[in-house]
Queue: 3 jobs
Job 1
Amino acid sequence: MLDVPVYNTDGDKIDTLSVDEARFGTTVNTALLKQAITVYEDARHPGTAATRGRGQVAGSTRKLFRQKGTGNARRGNLRTNIMRGGGVAFAKSGVRRRKSLPRKMRRKALDSAILAKLLGENLLVVDGLAAEEPRTRMMAEVLGKLHINRSCLLTLAANDENLYKSARNIPDVTVRVAAELNAYDVATRQKMLVTRDAMNALLEAPGRE
């Protein structure tokens, strides 16, 4: 069992949650986690890089001079890649790379990412986090009291517009709903701040066998 501290918005420890490692797969599957991160990064890649080949640049296709008898090196047309203004050899076509993971693998990768945060003591549970109106200063003060000064993934139990607007202007802070978490978001943030309701939702989520 893992003991996860629960803090209030003033940074004081008020409780402890006992989490069974088996709920998140017992051990961290680093190979699967790496595979999942690769898939998510490929999906984020725009795939817009493209260069012009010799068939796409402007210019005559006429051979510049005859093959033999001139004393010069053999030369084709102006569009060849060794001529200034010619096409690029092995031109990029702008094809987007696409990889995918089955649903069960995505779930297990997410479990491994969360378990890694638990084992590294980088997952914090906060109780009583709420905002009556969007206040960036309030959210920044809470993060400061919890000693979170690097990238952070704030996980909520449900959509909360006030909390989202309070955190969106803080650098390196990402807000996600528990049901929408993925392994990439969890693994690429230094800290994971989870509300108590969101933590209960993660522990009770189905399909984590």
Job 2
Amino acid sequence: MPRGCTRLVLLVLLLAALCARGVAKTDAGFHYLDPAQVDLTVLLPPPPDFDSAQQRDDEEKVAAEIAARNSSQLAQAKAGSQRSVFFFAGSIGPQFNPSRFPLTGAFFARVGSDVKKLIDLAKAYWSRPRPDGAVKNRGSYPSGHAAFAASTAILLAQLVPCKREQIFAQARTFAENRIVLGLHYPSDIAAGWTAGTLAVFVMMHNSAFEGDFAATKAELQKECPPARSD
């Protein structure tokens, strides 16, 4: 059986097993998301063919970013690559930390876990090689960091709307730094951002998500209190 067909069969079997268990069960591994609702192998375009013009364009853009970066930019990109909602303290303020907002940390950890598992399914299906020089050899498409950035920014901007512009600006930089680091192609970032958006859209229709989101919103309300009506 061709390699691509083998991956497809394995993915279908995995999705079927997850759906049979039911997403509400802890052994399914998902908190707010049924992976059958967001089949990224259907919803995303495939990565560029190895010998295509788009692939060459991707390679040239990564090479240009690496050539243009300086030591300070490289250090900042490496330092700011942790997938945690509290990375956005740069947008919200230093008071935004795990000790002050435990419900927020727990909620976004569940969201992040669901997004990562969903992305891992797609990475295993496409198994795109990473850019030359990356530590990992495969799993470039779609970018998990870009999916994290999009999903977290969409939700956090609703919870702290007075910081919406800063949150999205920081999320875009977070995602694009993966190109600066030479770990992802631009098409990986675009697909990851789309994947994170799709994942959050589905989660927002889950009843358990709605309850946890409301609790998180109450905890974060002091960071952006509602406008007072005269």
Job 3
Amino acid sequence: MFGKSIRKDKIEADFEALLRDIQPSRGTLGMAKVMFRHCWDMLEEQAQSFNQDVKGRIKKTDKEIAAVVDMAVNASSSVVLSAYEKKIENLQNEKLILQEKLQNPGKSGHSYSELFELSLKFLSSPCKIWQSGRLDLQKTVLRLVFTEPIHYCKEEGFLNTNFSMPFNMLGGKNMPILQNGAAGED
């Protein structure tokens, strides 16, 4: 619409309404929290199981080292003794690798609340964050809510609103994926 202008407050009001519409219901958000917590707990259990497995392998390696040392003490040939020493060295290296895995399991070192609560807070109310008026937060909302730039039409409002995966998955009241009461509307 060349040469036409649209009032700023009209576009902003329509945009805030769009953000409110994609906001997931409390029931859907509660379900997402339960799912995230369940996944987190499963990962914690896997990490504990992994640690137990590594500790068991360390004990087994210690026993193997002790057995090879006993055999090396009784060895009469220098060739056999050299082979035992090489076997002991390989087992010691294996044990060091296992101990390193035990000390550095690849965890992030953050708690569930540090990792997910802030994300869920954002997902529950992107409109509130937008309304803060802080430009840096508003840019973050645009990057995290939409997959591409959005366009505005004077007659039809916002066009080509392609939402990011979390908003498509959680679905607000006007989102197509979880409509018809499946989301537990509030």
